[in-house]
Amino acid sequence: MAFIDARTLPADSRIEADLIIIGGGMAGITIARQFAGTAVRVAILEGGGRDLSDTAQDLYDAAGATVRAPDNADRPLDDYPRNSRARVLGGSGMVWGGKCRPLDAADFARRDWIPHSGWPMSRRDLQPFYDRACDLLEIPHFDGAEAKDPERPILDIGADFMAAPVVFSKYSGGVDPAAFERFRTEFAQAPNITVYLHANVTRIGLSKSGDRVVQLDVACLDGPRHTATAGRYILAAGGIENARLLLASNDVDLAGVGNRHGLVGRFFQGHVTYSVDETDLVEGSALYLTAGKPMGRYLNPDRRGAHSVIASDLPGQQRLKAGNFTVTLYPTAPPGPKAGGRGEETIAVGQMAAKLDGAAPLLAGCFLMAEHFPNPESRITLAGEKDALGMPRVKLDWTYSTADLDGLERTAAHFGDSLGAAAKGRFCWPAERRDLVAISTASRHHMGTTRMHADPRQGVVDPDGRVHGLRNLHIAGSSVFPTSGIANPTLTILALALRMSDHLKRQMGA
Asked: Is the model's pTM score more than 0.85?
């Protein structure tokens, strides 16, 4: 396997390839796999090693991160930029739970009530690449067949809500380490691929005219520094790091690379869950569902096979002037004393099985997710403080608007009304608006900071992922998402990476 520790190279070595990929995470590996065995020489520059390292993670320490929303107290999340990423071969795939779901058709649509919404492609356009991403992860295609299982019926509560399927892939360091080890290493057996570990890119060097990349500066922690050159470059370092490197590479243009219109780092979007914990004084967020239908589609604690979340559909979003919204169910413990022995555990399992097959009413815990609207004031900027490589640290202002919170509250209320009107159950949601930021839990999803748009005044990259104004720099990953939707971004990241690979292979004659 062509793995090289950049720390062992002589100082000032020159790394040369036809295509250089900055970042050896899920996007970078997926793209490299598409070029394996071709005549194109591919080099991946990965800042981490084969194992997670506190020293490498220190480079992700931020100068501050704060979540802000109207009517809510600001919430510092200083550890979030560090703890939500992994600087290691395989990237955040090392800690990803393997959860897969495509974006909904509504997520790609231009929605007049959501400023800056709309993708330069549709779900139908991306569907062939979603199918290929599913094949890569060895999961079923999302083609509607999963909705036709008579043993796992849909909970019908009206036209505004649908069952959105979710499946889990084994190709995750958090699910099947052995399988993921093969995923992140075997592709490098191809003779045209070289992976450089501990190779941190610290600058994207532009030509004097600023229209193309001519060189990358590469640094090793407490080690030598190198340069890297290629005909084409792909930046695939993650939703925060992509923006950081572009902003910090400001020796030719003070605004940074690709930042002619001041968009790099803006429109940061994240995914959070909202739930209320039960206390002696307050009931927790929950659903009480009447008997009559099995609920195995929605309650799937063992992760085997597909399951679904309850999601809002486009007509409901339009009527409520809201974004995407999901309700995820999870089993609660059966009533009575906690199981203390093998016999009581068996009884508990039997009680849950009876509820799942529809023989009895079901009390299930739940949490909500609501789409984070694209907002130019939600952004990543650079701070004066620098890391061990001399790179400026980031400051994250994670900002929500009044429209975000209004949409969440309207859709949650409508969901409860729909559940009751359909005589399917009741929804307990004792959340106060002033507490929404406090009760939220942040996911490891960073989107929007190098957004995609055909118009360079509205996006950093074009529909093929090429940086506007640069001939040979592309960006891969969720930083190019114009809107965040609700789905875990990994499957869409891979679908876009496959689409970009096809585009570049045609250009490069591979």
From this structure: yes
Q: Of the candidates 246, 268, 167, which has an alpha carbon nearest to the alpha carbon of residue 481?
A: 268
Answer whether 370's CB lies under 8 Å from 327's CB.
Answer: no
Cβ neighbours of residue 390 under 8 Å, at least 6 residues apart?
A: 202, 219
In angstroms, the Cα distances linking 485 to 70, 167, 269, 309, 325 are 21, 17, 10, 14, 8
Q: What is the pLDDT of residues 167-178, one digit of tens each?
A: 999 999 989 999
| Residue 342 in this model has a pLDDT that exceeds 50 | no
Instruction: Give 222's DSSP letter.
Output: T
Q: Sign of dihedral through CA atoms 279, 280, 285, 288?
A: positive
Q: What burial letters (b/e) apply to 448-468, b meaning 16+ CB within 10 Å?
A: bbbbbbeebeebbbbbebbbb
Tokens read off for 247:
């902003």
Q: Which residues does residue 76 pair with via DSSP β-bridges, in sequence order?
A: 66
For residue 248, pLDDT over 70 is answered with yes
pLDDT of residue 339 exceeding 80 = no
What would the 3-class secondary structure string for 243-285 be? HHHHHHCCCCCCCCCCCCCCCCCCCCECCEEECCCCCCCCCCC
Q: How confident is the model at residue 359 (pLDDT cuts 50, 70, 90)?
A: low
Picking from 122, 164, 159, 132, the residue whose alpha carbon sits closest to that of residue 147 is 164
For residue 35, the enclosing domain spans 3-508
Strands 193-197 and 3-5 come out as parallel
Instruction: State how far the Cα of 26 lies from the Cα of 41, in Å rounded to an integer.
Output: 19
- CATH no. for residue 383? 3.50.50.60
For 437-468, the pLDDT digits (tens) are 999 999 999 999 999 999 999 999 999 999 99
User: Could you give the number of structural domains in the chain?
Assistant: 1
Give the Cβ contact number of residue 117 at 10 Å. Answer: 19
Residues whose CB falls within 8 Å of the CB of residue 471, separated by 6 or more in sequence, listed in order:
211, 212
Q: Which two tokens stand for residue 380?
A: 């990543």
Given this model, what pLDDT does residue 510 score?
83
Side chain identity at 494, as an amino acid letter?
Answer: L
CA–CA separation, 295 and 300 (whole Å)? 9
- Compute how many other C-beta atoms are within 10 angstroms of the C-beta atom of residue 348: 15
Mean pLDDT of the chain: 92
Burial status of residue 491 (CB atoms within 10 A of its CB: 0-12, 13-18, 19 or more): buried
Place of tokens 């620098």: 386
For residue 73, give both structure tokens: 């107290």
pLDDT digits (tens, 9 = 90+) for 249-281: 999 999 999 999 999 999 999 999 999 988 766
